[in-house]
Amino acid sequence: MAKIGRPKEVNPRDKTIGVRLTDEEHKKLLAYTENHNQTITQTVVDGLNYLYEKKAVDK
After folding, report:
1. pTM for the whole structure
2. Which of 1, 13, 23, 47 is most buried, by CB atoms within 10 Å?
3. What are 6-28's pLDDT values in tens digits?
């Protein structure tokens, strides 16, 4: 019998982090995500990748 449902992802995002923001920081984040048509997750991952690349260049 064939399996039913979504196929498993190769590299699933199953780790969770939490960040506490001020009201102003949260508003800025939401404005950024809306202006760039991204989710909060996409924005945070892009920001982390930017930091990783910047630190690699600085070395």
Report:
1. 0.75
2. 47
3. 888 888 889 999 999 999 999 99
Angstrom distance (rounded) from CA 26 to CA 46: 17
Please spell the DSSP secondary structure of 2-59, one letter per residue: ---SPPPPSS-----------HHHHHHHHHHHHHTT--HHHHHHHHHHHHHHHHHHH-
Q: At what angle do helices 40-58 and 23-35 cross, to 10 degrees?
A: 90
The whole-angstrom separation of Cα 51 and Cα 55 is 6
* Structure-token match 């498993």, residue found: 8
CA dist 32 and 15 (Å) reads: 23
> Which tokens hold the place of 58?
């600085």
What does the block give as tokens for 10? 């190769």
